[in-house]
């Protein structure tokens, strides 16, 4: 049974965390909105008046199940594809780490849209510059420092020890995204997070991930997604 992933067709965004898990698992899936009529089909499912309609993409269709919210999708996929521990405590721990990633991603988004998502970045440049400065000074060291400590105390190469989880894949994406959005500042941050950078490099060389990154399925970063590079914010 093939999965159906629904997300915006031209950006990585929150859907990329799901794509990475599906690719690592070697799962059969279609990125529906990237096909003909796919975006219309996605909107129709969101507007459904019955069942369990998702609020927003990404969402995943697996048989009769329609699962929304990135961390919720990954919780589901993790158990089915060996990307989460087998114990309940372990699964909850990885889910907790993923929810922390979710919080971080929301703060990244707010660096370029601090007032309203309905406004363009150009309409809120001043507040964005102020928000980004605080984010880089206060929040990034706190988040990345936390993940660095977790990795160092895990007793292995990954967050839970010797075995990769979907949260490790998400941290790979965090490093990739931060390098794109804030290349100058990340050069400084990376000296403080060697374990996290080593994790990123380890994930990048995994066969399925390496193949995905070099394929057309991997959408390039751009200024429509969550991680955006604006020179004025990278100070």
Summarize the structure.
By secondary structure, the protein is of the alpha+beta class. The chain has helices at 15-25, 38-46, 70-80, 88-112, 125-153, 166-181, 183-189, 194-204, 207-213; strands at residues 3-6, 29-31, 59-62, 65-68.
Structure, described:
The chain is of the alpha+beta class. It has a domain at 88-206: Up-down Bundle (Glutathione S-transferase Yfyf (Class Pi), Chain A, domain 2), CATH 1.20.1050.10. Helix content is 54%, strand content 6%. It is built from nine helices and four strands. It has helices at 15-25, 38-46, 70-80, 88-112, 125-153, 166-181, 183-189, 194-204, 207-213; strands at residues 3-6, 29-31, 59-62, 65-68. It has a four-stranded mixed sheet with strand order 2-1-3-4, sandwiched between helices. Helix 1 links the parallel strand 1 and strand 2. Helix 1 (15-25) runs parallel beside helix 3 and helix 6 (166-181) crosses helix 8. The protein is globular, with a radius of gyration of 18 Å. The chain starts with a strand and ends in a 22-residue tail after the last helix. The model has no long low-confidence stretch (mean pLDDT 97).
């Amino acid at each position: 049974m093939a999965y159906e992933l629904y997300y915006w067709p031209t950006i990585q965004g929150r859907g990329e965390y799901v794509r990475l898990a599906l690719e690592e698992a070697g799962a059969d899936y279609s990125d529906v909105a990237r096909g003909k009529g796919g975006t219309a089909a996605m909107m129709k499912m969101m507007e459904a008046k019955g069942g369990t309609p998702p609020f927003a993409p990404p969402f995943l269709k697996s048989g009769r199940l329609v699962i929304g919210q990135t961390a919720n999708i990954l919780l589901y996929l993790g158990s089915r594809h060996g990307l989460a521990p087998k114990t309940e405590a372990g699964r909850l721990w990885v889910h907790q780490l993923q929810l922390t990633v979710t919080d971080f991603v929301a703060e990244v988004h707010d660096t370029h849209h601090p007032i309203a998502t309905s406004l363009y970045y150009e309409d809120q440049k001043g507040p964005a510059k102020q928000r980004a400065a605080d984010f880089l000074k206060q929040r990034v060291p706190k988040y990345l420092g936390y993940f660095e400590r977790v990795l160092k105390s895990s007793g292995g190469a990954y967050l839970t020890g010797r075995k990769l989880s979907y949260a490790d894949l998400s941290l790979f994406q965090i490093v990739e995204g931060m390098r794109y959005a804030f290349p100058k500042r990340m050069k400084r941050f990376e000296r403080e997070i060697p374990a996290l950078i080593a994790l990123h490099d380890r994930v990048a060389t995994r066969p399925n991930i390496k193949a995905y990154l070099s394929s057309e399925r991997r959408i390039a970063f751009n200024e429509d997604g969550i991680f955006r590079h604006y020179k004025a914010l990278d100070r």
